[in-house]
Amino acid sequence: MSKTLVLLTAAAALLAGCTQNIQPTEMDRALIGAGAGAVIADISGKSVAKGAAIGAAGGALCDDVRLCQ
């Protein structure tokens, strides 16, 4: 996977994992991030599984880096 795709997928997953006013759990953010990562990877013609994995990690960890609170 190219570095640009990894960065774009991670950024989209982090932003997708940020949901306001519903207090999502780690699992909620991971699922949202996985969906966003899979869509971005599919659109760019890359591995959907890898995109979903990167997105899930980004979504689950977005609150740990204080990006979404």
Automatic annotation (TrEMBL):
<protein>
    <recommendedName>
        <fullName>YMGG-like Gly-zipper domain-containing protein</fullName>
    </recommendedName>
</protein>
<dbReference type="Pfam" id="PF13441">
    <property type="entry name" value="Gly-zipper_YMGG"/>
</dbReference>
<feature type="domain" description="YMGG-like Gly-zipper">
    <location>
        <begin position="29"/>
        <end position="61"/>
    </location>
</feature>
<dbReference type="InterPro" id="IPR027367">
    <property type="entry name" value="Gly-zipper_YMGG"/>
</dbReference>
